[in-house]
Amino acid sequence: MPVISTQCGASEKVLESAQFINEHSKDVTVPTTGVRRAAQEIMERMKSTGYSTAEWKKHQLTPSVANADAIEWIFVVDALNFSFWPSRAAEHKQYTVTLDSKSYRGYWSLCAAINRAQYEHIEITRASYYAHASEEQLAHVFRTDDPVIQESIPMLEERIQVMHEVGRVLLAKYGGKFANVVRQCQGSAQMLVETIVRDFPCFRDEHEFCGRSVYLYKRAQILVADIWACFEGRGDGLFNDIDQITMFADYRVPQALYHFGALDYSPRLLEYLKRSEIAVQQGDGGQTQPPKPGLLPSGHPWELEIRGNSIWAVEQIRRHIHASGHNVNAILIDFYMWDYAKEHTAEMRTIPIHLTRSKFY
After folding, report:
1. R_g of the chain computed on alpha carbons
2. What is the pLDDT of residues 295-336, one digit of tens each?
3. What are the Cα distances from residue 194, in Å, to 190, 282, 335?
4. Nearest to 42 by CA among 356, 346, 317
5. Which of 27, 250, 264, 334 is catalytic?
6. Quick one: which H or E segment has residue 226?
7. Which residues are bridge partners to 29 per DSSP?
8. d(Cα 84, Cα 100) in Å, to the nearest integer?
């Protein structure tokens, strides 16, 4: 089976994978005119708002101080940074965590749960704790506000397995600290991504598409990017090759790319995604292969087309912005588009997301 070169860096493998997927896709495309419009609009919006890495620490749930404790917090959060979409139609039934009188859903519910545990003096960011914590202890950490009317955090069993796995690796190889992994890589984002996917199996976002191995590495790359953003490119967040990191292929940014016209779906895929949202909301898991509406299996060609073309679309946007004389990397474009999608949820409600339960995103 032909494979992408294993001699290049991790993010270069991701970009090569994205290009290969783009060239062999049947149902997802990256329109050139849409990319140009998106690049211009995104750049203008980022300039007008002064969007930068400083945005990362402005949220009340993220660490406000860039230090070793922040690295461990980021590692735990990104180890668990996957699958937050609700499996029920009514938003009030979604997994919810309330902290300081404010309720959080989606990705922010995970951050709130971690912070709540710290307020309760649970050492949730210490590998010595979470590597051996019982299922009951971790289920308590990730409890929802009201288990009677709200669903539990999705994939709780898988999250517990991830915490045990990564904690034990840290204890066995890195003195229980992810900060040691970061410092061992000596300012190379690529070395850090490669180390993560080598030593922590749950980060190996690798699949087969059209007879070829493809690499997407969403959580490994966003882990590096979050450390870079938290430290604003200084100290432990100084990486000399940070611009090689690609977009982080999930289910929210593709929605924003479609909104901006930089991603397009075939009529049959778009109809499938719309019918799938309805099926899942009505409680039909749709575990069979498409075209039955429901969950799109991880590794299915449609899922990989959406994720791979999203990476390729952001790369084309980045190149257009760079050609106009502005130096913006894929990380900031991804961060901006994710924030935009969350802030304009109502506006993009008619654009369906693909529904895949996966520990990769």
Report:
1. 20
2. 899 999 999 999 999 999 999 999 999 999 998 999 999 999
3. 6, 41, 22
4. 317
5. 250
6. helix 218-230
7. 264
8. 21
